[in-house]
């Protein structure tokens, strides 16, 4: 039984690797996809072997394999969430930097060029592209492209406000930027608090989901005879149903903790005329 299960786990891992290498696709291959798939297979196989050595239950072994396959994706999502939080803070810094530059006597285009050199490091390339586009096609179209590339609701607010002020020829640009900087900073602060609370709720969900599994494994190590009924096919079916219920409950808790997505003010695709609607 041990050799059969380990062989099945190893065979499944090799099958996933082959599928990732040979499956045809119409899109260009993503350079980061193969390392992520390889890392997922490696983590999954290690987790599956470890769980098999601890409890010897095929259902838990396959569940560990599946969980290990998802670890790189979870890690990438975590990095993406951190990048979104940093981007929100950077956009608030851009609004404040524009306000200070305009108060110093610079125009918006010149201020954007300056921010491309001394602004937030993560957004300097985007700001440089914005300044170049503003000189080539005009500020409103450049702002639309900037917001579309960042795909962030706060960037939409910044771009829409600057474009509207440019079209209307507002003379109180410094006051507009002051109010805009305060609003974006407050929104970024709110998003930071929401993400922190979401992280706490996700951690609570993981602890609640992991608690029964850890208890089962602990009992399996300390008193194997007590859980002997789970060694039968019927017992494995019961464990499979229990794992499914835990997974559904975890998914529900995570979904309830997910904050609503921000509303985009600008289109996600270019408008036919190249400018804003």
Description:
This protein has 277 residues and is mostly helical. The protein has a domain at 92-189. It is 79% helix and 0% strand. The protein is built from 9 helices and no strands. Helix 4 (108-118) packs antiparallel against helix 5. The protein is elongated, with a radius of gyration of 26 Å.
How far is the first residue's CA from the last residue's CA? 66 Å
Number of helices: 9
Rounded to an integer in angstroms, the radius of gyration calculated over CA atoms is 26 Å
Strand content: under 5%
Structural class: mainly alpha
State the low-pLDDT regions, or none: 1-11, 13-30, 270-277
Bin the helical content: over 70%
Q: Sheet with the most strands?
A: none
What labels would you give this structure?
277 residues; mainly alpha; 9 helices; 0% strand; disordered C terminus
Structure described in brief:
This protein has 277 residues and is an all-alpha fold.
Blueprint of the fold:
Blueprint: H1 2-22, H2 33-55, H3 58-103, H4 108-118, H5 124-137, H6 139-150, H7 153-168, H8 173-222, H9 233-257
């Amino acid at each position: 039984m041990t050799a059969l299960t380990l062989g099945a786990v190893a065979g499944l891992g090799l099958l996933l690797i082959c599928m990732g290498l040979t499956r045809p696709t119409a899109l260009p291959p993503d350079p980061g996809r193969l390392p992520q798939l390889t890392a997922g297979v490696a983590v999954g196989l290690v987790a599956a072997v470890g769980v098999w050595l601890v409890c010897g239950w095929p259902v838990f072994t396959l569940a560990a394999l599946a969980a290990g396959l998802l670890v790189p994706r979870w890690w990438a999502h975590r990095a993406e969430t951190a990048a979104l939080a940093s981007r929100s803070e950077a956009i608030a810094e851009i609004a404040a930097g524009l306000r200070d530059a305009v108060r110093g006597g610079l125009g918006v285009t010149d201020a954007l060029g300056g921010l491309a050199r001394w602004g937030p490091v993560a957004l300097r390339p985007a700001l440089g592209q914005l300044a170049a586009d503003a000189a080539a096609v005009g500020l409103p179209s450049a702002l639309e492209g900037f917001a579309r590339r960042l795909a962030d609701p706060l960037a939409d607010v910044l771009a829409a406000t600057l474009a509207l002020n440019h079209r209307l020829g507002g003379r109180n640009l410094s006051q507009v930027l002051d109010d805009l900087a305060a609003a974006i900073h407050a929104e970024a602060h709110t998003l930071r608090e929401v993400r922190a609370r979401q992280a706490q709720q996700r951690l609570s969900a993981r602890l609640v989901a992991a608690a029964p599994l850890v208890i089962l494994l602990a009992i399996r190590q300390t008193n194997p005879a007590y859980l002997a009924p789970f060694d039968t096919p019927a017992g494995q079916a019961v464990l499979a149903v229990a794992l499914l219920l835990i997974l559904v409950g975890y998914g529900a808790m995570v979904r309830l903790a997910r904050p609503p997505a921000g509303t985009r003010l600008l289109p996600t695709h270019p408008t036919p005329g190249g400018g804003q609607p």
